[in-house]
Write a structure and sequence with these properties.
By secondary structure, this protein is α+β, with helices and mostly antiparallel strands. The protein has a single domain, classed as Gcn5-related N-acetyltransferase (GNAT) (Aminopeptidase, 3-Layer(aba) Sandwich). 27% of the residues lie in helices and 32% in strands. The chain has 5 helices and 8 strands, in the order ββαααβββαβαββ. A hairpin with a 3-residue loop joins strand 1 and strand 2. The radius of gyration is 16 Å and the shape is globular. 29% of the residues are buried. The structure holds coenzyme A. Coenzyme A binds next to strand 5, helix 4 and helix 5.
Length: 182
């Protein structure tokens, strides 16, 4: 699905863009921060694994295939420096997209994740057949809960999960494709 054709996408203070191999230091840095990784499904990777991931993403032409996940960079609009990323997964029937978001700690608490996620949801509804965008958050991850609720995602359920060997409770959120004005 041609999501990457619509990148870069300018928000107000951030830009959504493809990840590059040259983002290695920034990407590997914040993803190696235990506070950033704490409530995430992914585990920290080695330098070799991070570089391989960025090379794979740089080769991917379309960006989002049914049943698969990809990553999109969040860059500072002022200097294009990578400050975070969005993980986006598409269901096998291409009707539901799921996302996760990570921001370098230095750039948190400024509303930048909110801009980036709003931009992503807008892109998905504008350029893909996705009908519903979903996300989940550990109940202890207060900044993430505030982010999702502030963006208008609805709390649609709760699930017990295990992350990194630890039992946790996840809140599930969803936002539906807006009905076009008649
Ligand atoms: C989840 C995460 C992305 C949220 O980032 P964030 O920066 O707190 O989120 P927002 O962009 O919505 O910022 C909101 C904060 O910015 C403040 N803010 C400042 N200027 C603002 C503006 N112009 N607009 C909106 N909020 C603004 C808000 O008051 C709010 O402050 P608070 O965090 O003290 O309540 C971040 O905590 C993170 O990367 N965590 C680690 C990874 C993770 O757990 N991800 C979630 C699992 S997928």
């Amino acid at each position: 699905m041609s999501l990457f054709l619509h990148l870069p996408h300018a928000c107000e203070r951030v830009r959504l863009r493809r990840l590059r191999v040259s983002d290695f230091r920034a990407f590997h840095g914040y993803r190696g921060d235990p506070e950033v990784a704490r409530y995430q499904g992914w585990a920290a990777t080695t330098e070799v694994e991070t570089e391989a991931l960025l090379r794979d993403l740089a080769r991917n032409a379309s960006g989002l295939e049914p049943g698969e996940w990809t990553q999109i960079g969040i860059a500072d609009s002022a200097d294009d420096r990578l400050i975070g990323d969005l993980g986006v997964g598409l269901s096998p029937d291409a009707r539901t997209a799921e996302f996760g978001v990570s921001l370098h700690p230095q750039f948190q608490h400024r509303g930048l994740a909110r801009e980036a996620v709003a931009g992503l949801i807008g892109l998905l509804f504008a350029h893909t057949p996705v009908q519903r965008v979903v996300a989940s958050s550990d109940v202890r991850n207060a900044p993430c809960l505030r982010l999702l609720e502030g963006l208008g995602l609805q709390h649609v359920g709760t699930a017990e999960a295990t992350y990194k060997g630890e039992a946790c409770t996840e809140r599930l959120y969803a936002i539906e494709r807006p009905v076009p004005a008649s």
